Amino acid sequence: MQFSYPLTENDYSLLEPYRYICESSGKGFRNILIKAFDYWLNVGENKVKEVSEVVQGLHMASLLINIDDFYSIDDIEDNSKLRRGNPVAHTIYGVPQTINSANFVYFLMIDQCNRLGSPVATSIFIEEVIRLHRGQGYDIMWRDNNRCPTEEEYMRMVSEKTGGLFRLGLRLLQTFSENKTDYSQFIEDLGLYYQIRDDYINLISVDYHSNKSFCEDISEGKFSFPIIHAINSNLNDKRLLMILKQKTEDHQIKTHALDYIQKVGSIEYTRNILKKYEEKLYSQIKQLGGNPILEEMVTKLSNSSI
């Protein structure tokens, strides 16, 4: 990624953790999503590229919201060891340099927003970064206090954390468009679908196991959607809470936890929720005037979660 702010050779050495994660990043879901938004907003290739750089820079530097590709702060906060099969940045560069690199990119992205040519771009960026950190904060608080949230609390957290990057791209792009249609409900539902799907895949996908390790969310003590449903299905049974509290790497214990999650119907429940969101997203796309790029994205996400 090219930064608008003038950087020295030494500056780039400070950004090594960030450059490392960019080299090992995923398939650019958010960049494709912004191009899909432009099908509706029609602002042109240059603005799409500029906005994509801001969103991708923030995503790589701060995700929180696991979403799914970030190697630095989110991985430090989640005690992750692998990301897409590679060592996470802080295990190579150390925690201090990794955090500093991520914060460096935060402010470089603010500078990028200042240069977009919109008087509200920077305030939009700051607003969404605040929401993103609020969501990540709840996620961390529940994990560190071993408190299982309700499904409603989880939904609110995901709306702040995962939905933030989706909203940021749309809102920045829309400042340059004559189309002022309210897409907020669609964005919220897409964020929920994306995160619930990620939680589901973490537990059941063989490919995901080989990239991150078996049931990594259990090892991180994370209250993912299926786990929340399983715990709340029988509040008198504390086994999952105790297993999450241990943050265990033991394969047998994690297998037992997964068996229990399946036994109480949480995997099937999650699968049904995903199907409902898929149908809702397709319906919303149609109501909003149709968008073949978004339809293809939802189809690909659906097929890869089976």
Automatic annotation (TrEMBL):
Gene Ontology biological process terms, A to Z: isoprenoid biosynthetic process
Pfam families: polyprenyl_synt (PF00348)
CDD domains registered for this protein in UniProt: Trans_IPPS_HT
UniProt entry keywords in alphabetical sequence: Magnesium, Metal-binding, Transferase
PROSITE patterns: POLYPRENYL_SYNTHASE_2
Signal peptide per UniProt: none
GO molecular function: metal ion binding; prenyltransferase activity
Family: Belongs to the FPP/GGPP synthase family.
Protein name in the entry: Geranylgeranyl pyrophosphate synthase
Origin species: Polysphondylium violaceum
